[in-house]
Amino acid sequence: MSTTRLTTAAAIVRYLIAQRTVIDDVEVPLFPGVFAIFGHGNVTSLGLALQAAGDDLPTWRGQNEQGMGLAAVGYAKAMQRRQIMVATSSVGPGALNMVTAAGVAHANRLPALFLVGDTFASRLPDPVLQQVEHFGDPTITVNDAFKSVSRYWDRIMRPEQIIHSLPHAVAVMLDPADCGPAVIALPQDVQAEAFDFPDEFFATTVHHVARRRPDLGQLERAAAALRSAKRPLIIAGGGVHYSQATADLAAFSEAHGVPVVETTAGRTCLPAVHPFNAGPVGATGCTSANDLAGAADVILAVGTRLQDFTTGSWTAFARDAQLIGLNAATFDAVKHRSLPLVGDAREGLRELDERLSGWVADEDWALRAKNVTADYHAYIDRIADPAAVGESGRPTYAQVIGVVDRAQQPRDYVFAAAGGFPGELINGWRAKEVGDFDCEYGFSCMGYEISGAWGAKMARPNDEVITFVGDGSYMMMNSDLYSSVLSGHKLIVIVCDNGGFAVINRLQTNQGGLPFNNLIENARHHELVYVDFAAHAAAMGCDSERVASVHELEGALKRARHNDRTTVIALLTDAYAWTGGGAFWEVGVPEVSDRPEVQAAKAKMISGKQQQRIGT
User: Fold this and answer.
1) What CATH number corresponds to the domain at position 328?
2) For the chain, what is the radius of gyration of the CA atoms?
3) Do 453 and 345 share a structural domain?
4) Using CA atoms, how far apart are residues 288 and 291, in angstroms rounded to an integer?
């Protein structure tokens, strides 16, 4: 057996370069690049190996480790999990900064590879710079914090261990059921140690993601349940995108007359004008989708983990409605006593379609869906109208989104994550194209809006990536504006300044509390100072401008499309106007309070909970 003597770090890089995948019949790298911030825990070994790799594994410099991880997640989402970015950090704070990004990947079932520096395996220099010591267990380092947010975790204590570990990490990240982040902790001394690695370990490997077919018995039971339905409904989740099953979903709904509602991750599985697309469902959903969800007797949940915002904390569906869980993950397929249909979304829809040949849902049900959906679109048109003026006189989120919605062009890709924008964007964006949307609402991570968009632009260089960010998220993480300018990945960033964390202020006051510590004016302060976001963005090399109205935003968007670098458009927006139509959402309201408003909110919460399905 022929071997090559390499350091652990160099062997890892060579292995990553050797991994390939196929996208649209073209063989491409499985790992197209690395986001890196170097420190003493990774610069001398892994950094040296990455420098030597050059364009075979391009390295991109980040500004913050969390931002790099979020960019990796945004890339994976934009590529529908078909390629995986790597992020590497030094030890200690650099590694811990990436834990949040790993949480985003884990919650959203997206692949990312985190190569994190670690302390010395020998322990001879302990305690080293940035090491956190555990007196009773010296094996623990800060990298153990990743265990709760990783699908695969390992610490390499000997060079040859990567021969076992790396293939398993890749397998997990590519598995449709187990997909999520992999974390490999790399002690500084082990990175530098050499081993005679077998050359076959570095042989080019082309990966093909398996499409698991459902069990025949599960198929028959699911088909029988649907045939018995009077008011069937499909919930389309992110798994429809990841399975490239959007065309099959459209064909299935059309053939059998079944309305489709979408989760946040499943948004834009169908164009907005599709005759069976009834809009987004759940706590931030629309009236049409929630009307149908509450009336449906059989619900086919495709590729969704049925998060509380989708299910209205399990009040959105009738208690006696039968759920069918078509999902690659058994864990998701059996939720709330669902009939499980464990398998690939595309293949599952195709095989169900064969067994339902000739069956079509009641025409009255389809007509109901059409009518309530028309009402939903009329409502969005009304609140997004530029002529609508609220009490504040400032543009609303709905109007801001309406500008971009009306002006959407082929290959636009819109972005949001936290605060008020998820509920507003999933309602106000009426997609003309399938798959033109990423709203990270599994972890709802503030900061994803800019960093994730940077990664998405890398994945989709020919698309216009337009990201919506509130002032709160902007203040939390904005440095990847600079990254996008440095790297030449142009974004259009619309910053809506509503004076703080306005949507949480809404939650606070709606549940009986007083405005406190969310809007800047209600926070403890010596001097009330507001940020000039356009000037701040300009200081990082962006083109930028401030606008004051919906009409000015329309002109700024046109100019931004013609710019050749990241463009930030900032405007003041209303802090109190929100899109309606959402379902119930359970939050913790105090059982005892001196405030009558809190007592009333608790009574309303108890009443809402009476509609919850009892499940597992």
Assistant:
1) 3.40.50.1220
2) 25
3) no
4) 5
Q: CA-CA distance, 129 to 140, in Å (whole number)?
A: 15
Residue 315, both tokens: 């009040």
Share of the chain above pLDDT 90, in %: 98
Give the closest residue to 453 by CA, choosing from 67, 74, 102, 61. 74
Residues 545 and 490 in one domain: yes
Please check whether residue 606 lies inside any domain of the structure: no
Same domain? For 368 and 433 the reply is: no
**How do residues 344-366 score in pLDDT, each as one tens digit?**
999 999 999 999 999 999 999 99
Is the residue at 579 inside a domain? no
Alpha-carbon torsion (51, 57, 60, 62), positive or negative:
negative
Question: What pLDDT is attached to residue 48?
Answer: 98
Q: Residue 108: CB partners within 8 Å, gap ≥ 6?
A: 73, 77, 238, 265, 440, 442, 443
* Cα–Cα nearest to 28, from 109, 84, 112: 84
* Strand runs labelled E in 137-179: 152-155
Which regions in the chain score pLDDT beneath 70? Answer: 615-616
CA distance 376 to 261: 13
Structural domain span for residue 236:
216-375
Angle at 24 between CA 18 and CA 25, to 5 degrees: 65
CATH number for position 522: 3.40.50.970
Determine how many CB atoms are found less than 10 A away from the CB of residue 43: 18
* Three-state SS letters, 313-365: CCCCCCCCCEEEEEECCHHHHCHHHCEEEECCHHHHHHHHHHHCCCCCCCHHH
- How far apart are alpha carbons 80 and 413 in whole angstroms? 13
Provide the pLDDT for residue 240: 98
Q: Is residue 487 part of a domain?
A: yes
Residue count (the chain):
616
Both structure tokens of 470: 């509130």
Instruction: Name the domain boundary from 554, 572, 590.
Output: 572
Asked if residues 307 and 332 have their Cβ atoms less than 8 Å apart, the reply is no
- Give, as one character, the DSSP assignment of residue 514: P
> In terms of domains, do 108 and 26 share one?
yes
Read off the pLDDT of residues 385-431 as tens digits, 9 standing for 90 and up: 999 877 889 999 999 999 999 999 999 999 999 999 999 999 999 99
Do 289 and 322 lie in one domain? The reply is: yes
223 and 202 belong to one structural domain: no
Residue 351 in tokens: 């095989």
Farthest CA pair distance, the chain: 78
DSSP code at position 384: H
- The kind and range of the H/E element at 466 are strand 464-470
Distance CA 415, CA 422 (A): 9
Contact status, residue 95 vs residue 65, Cβ threshold 8 Å: yes
Count other C-beta atoms under 10 Å from residue 507's C-beta.
13
B/e letters for 219-235, b = 16+ CB within 10 Å, e = fewer, are beebbebbeebebbbbb
Q: Are 344 and 393 contained in the same domain?
A: no
Give pLDDT, residue 614: 79
Q: Are residues 363 and 424 in the same domain?
A: no
| Chain Cα centroid distance, residue 303 | 14
Residue 601 lies in a domain: no
User: What total of structural domains would you count in the chain?
Assistant: 3
